[in-house]
Amino acid sequence: MVSREDKRAALHEKLQLLRSITNSHAVNKTTIIVDASKYISELKQKVERLNRDISAAQSSNHQNPLPMVTVETLEKGFLINVFSENSCPGLLVSLLEAFEELSLNILEARVSCTDSFRLQAVGGGEDEEQNESIDAQVVKQAVLQAIKNWSESGDQQE
């Protein structure tokens, strides 16, 4: 039979796990749970926003073959996603040049450009001050401009 102290210890361990997952700095149980609830709401909003972006990209994909772009702010930098159903030859070079112009260091990246184009990159400035001076909207605009320049240059022939 599980003792009351074992149950209390298990509950405390689960609360601490919940606290770390949600980046909560709370110390009491109620506040940890409130922070977790807020975190879940934020995640739901992100999912809804991404679903809207995907729907908008799919509906406009027939009229506009340009890739879909999302940029999220991370603790130290940005998560940049670029997706197109087309392979987009030459686009990666244009995007890397845009990152270089922003002095954005790519810390980690996954790229696929066989049948479709997909880039997922984590990037940040060289120091924290630089990260604070660049926001997600600036990064997104730079990526969109790089895509526009690429599409207008004629590099996208397959």
UniProtKB/TrEMBL annotation:
From the record, what ranges are coiled-coil?
A: 33-60
Q: Which GO terms describe its cellular component?
A: nucleus
The record's subcellular locations are:
Nucleus
Q: Which InterPro entries match?
A: bHLH-TF_ACT-like_plant (IPR054502), TF_AMS/ICE1/BHLH6-like (IPR051358)
An MF annotation (GO) of this entry: sequence-specific DNA binding
**Key words, A-Z:** Coiled coil, DNA-binding, Nucleus
Q: Which domain of life is it from?
A: Eukaryota
Q: Which residues form the Plant bHLH transcription factor ACT-like domain?
A: 68-148
What protein does this entry describe? Plant bHLH transcription factor ACT-like domain-containing protein
Q: Which organism is it from?
A: Hibiscus trionum (Flower of an hour)
Source organism lineage?
Eukaryota, Viridiplantae, Streptophyta, Embryophyta, Tracheophyta
